[in-house]
Amino acid sequence: MDQSWWKESVVYQIYPRSFKDSNGDGVGDLQGIVEKLDYLKELGVDIIWLSPVYKSPNDDNGYDVSDYQDIMDEFGTMADWEHLIQEMHDREMKLMMDLVVNHSSDEHHWFLEAKKSKDNPYRNYYIWRKGKDGKEPTNWESFFSGSAWEYDETTDEYFLHLFSKKQPDLNWENAKLRKEVYDMMNWWIDKGVDGFRMDVINLISKAGYQDARNMEGKKYASGAEYFFNGPKIHEYLQEMNKEVLSRGVVTVGETPGVDVEQAKLYTGSDRNELNMVFQFEHMDLDSGPGGKWDLRPLKLKDLRDNFTKWQKGLEGEGWNSLYLNNHDQPRMVSRFGNDGKYRVESAKMLATFLHTLQGTPYIYQGEEIGMTNVKFASIEEYKDIETLNMYKEKVNENNEDEAKVMESIYVKGRDNARTPVQWNASEHAGFTTGTPWIAVNPNYKEVNVEQAVADPDSIFHYYKKLIKLRKENEVIVYGAYDVLLDDHEQIYAYTRTLKKEKLLVILNFTDHRPEFKLPEDMICRDVEVLISNYEQPEEPDVTSIKLRPYEAVVYKYR
Ligand code: ISL
Ligand code: CA
Predict the structure, then answer these.
(1) Which of 105, 103, 187, 117 is nearest to 152 (CA)?
(2) Whose CA is nearest to atom 18 of ligand 1?
(3) Chain-centroid distance, C-alpha 336
(4) How far apart are CA 553 and CA 46, in angstroms?
(5) Per residue in 262-291, pLDDT tens?
(6) What is the 190 CA–ligand 2 centroid distance (Å)?
(7) Which parts of the chain span the membrane according to its record (predicted)?
């Protein structure tokens, strides 16, 4: 058993734009975060992952960086950032910065130089190709719709942008670029940063530039096989580790399209690459072959099989990061639980799930009070570039059914996660005294931090308890995971075992009342309830239990 502080930690993700506005301009900021540090400390957070706060024209809310060593004007100044990290360290919280180096902004001075001429010293910091028969160099599709290539008139070449055209991809083949990145990272570590979350880090090595296999009738195709986990990815990460990460910072790589075997290569303790990765397989279980907007219902069996695969796969070899939502995904309670009648029960059930698996749990802002998805009446109210580009392509260009497209946005759109954190029942949920950059979810009068902190039975207090249990029970962090009832359509149950310690976790993922029957060989009368989202009997009998809607219960064997 390989123990590490970051395995025992709980991470809280802040999307600064939507967290807390301190000066009434409608945009969350660094000073707003400082105001809420005591709240996060009370929750039990060890590490804060801060989505990008660097200088940015905000085409993709900060994921388009125009200066890696300066702070976005709307969020404050470098002095504000220094104040924030000081206040965090005073409270023994660590800061994980977002590192966005697959691409920069097209307003970064490197790119402004690069596009001046073919022989500019910065040209090679980006990826330029000639057109093919008057068209783009390859048929690759951008993650944000349309071609992944943009034509540049000055030099009569195209540049690659896997995301928006204001996010040109950096050329990692260029050793000078790599050194600039490492120097920049070291500069932040010198300023006190404790770790990095690395944006789409498994996309930085490209395998070549050829047409991807195309599905019938589509103009562009996913070029994933040319840039997911490319040929030099491990070489680059090992180099980065040697130059920067070995100084002792915590790392998590965002790695879409990574499977268990690849994750072992990224996170294996003998590999000198990363500590953890965010894998995406469980985020794809409710999508059809048409991709994320192609909605299909989630089956509990698929979810369980997937988590079991990752839990067993990385056991003793790598380390899982545990998440059910973030700033790119719909709200967890709306997606995997029930955001109506059983909002509180199901949010607690899902929290029990995440916080009793092997791995490091990540909480996304507002999750701890059970914030839900939002339905804005019109596309005008949406802000996310991915959503807006998709809508334009499907509705305006391809004449697809508007209502159906809006429905997919309600279920999967990224703005579900980006409405302001609901602090109290006052106007704009206490997020701002001005006009928020994106509208507040109308349920803020009922769902807000003030209410949750005051109510001892709230989701907030339940999270607090789960986090505390993790600190007190090694088995929660390090215990081996074993699944029970692997075919059940409503119940997800598993055990966690560490030496003589054993936990039994029973979760009802539905509003039905299924009966849980414990396998014979697991029967033990001497159990204690560690936590549950319902009242439990003084002397529990775990051999057979009729579960209530979204009931979660964790037993400890004595
Ligand atoms: O958001 C997604 C799901 O629809 C993904 O396609 C997402 O774009 C992908 O996971 C990469 O995400 C990261 O890089 C993007 C940025 O827009 C996301 O916010 C970030 O998390 C480009 O920097
Ligand atoms: Ca502000």
Answers:
(1) 117
(2) 328
(3) 15
(4) 25
(5) 999 999 989 999 999 999 999 999 999 999
(6) 27
(7) none
